[in-house]
Amino acid sequence: MSRAADRSARRVARRAALSGSGPTGDDADSVARFPGARSGFGLLGEVLLVGILVSLVSLPVITLPAALAAGVRHLRRYLRAEDSALGWFWRDVRASLVGGIAVGAASPLLAAVLVLDIDLASTGVLPGGPVVAVVGCAGLAALVLVLFTAAGLWTPHLGWVGALRGAPRAIRDDPVGAAYLLATGVFAVVVTWQLAPLVVPALGCVALAIVAAPERPRRGS
User: Fold this and answer.
1) Among candidates 43, 51, 82, which has minimal Cα distance to 67?
2) What is the pLDDT of residue 205?
3) Residue 144 has pLDDT above 70, yes or no
4) What residues contact 33, with CB distance under 8 A and at least 6 apart?
């Protein structure tokens, strides 16, 4: 058999294994990591749905971490072809509100203090303004990373305390993934600033990034 024919046969076998219409082999490539994501259009629709759900739940602002955690878990179930009925999302919302409201109340206050410091540093009122601005920007980046990572780690069993404790280690162990999350956060802020209704798909993209960043193929893995 020629190389071209062999590659074609492998592709056919892989598609059959992924669809369930053919036998599955021991090759890791024959197993879909995210069987729920076979349809790109379906995935796009689910991301938009998650964006709508997260936006609705986070209207009071302080419920944003809880809404994001529930949205991440819903999207993860969808990608794994598990039961992704909306009832599970609302169960996660109720569970994540315990502790999530405290996180959601403290985060805007801390962000406001950092933004105020950056604004004052730009006016020259504060001594060492450039240093204050750098520290403020770094603080905002750290806040976003911790919130996104904790939302991805949160489970009803672990709770917010456990998720927040595990966030620094997760960030340290995967700095590239942290950079992806930070870039997604910047993207969400920019598109929302340009057009407010875009916050809906932006939040869906944030949830997708939180799910996908830790699961991406890594060199040496």
Assistant:
1) 51
2) 95
3) yes
4) 215
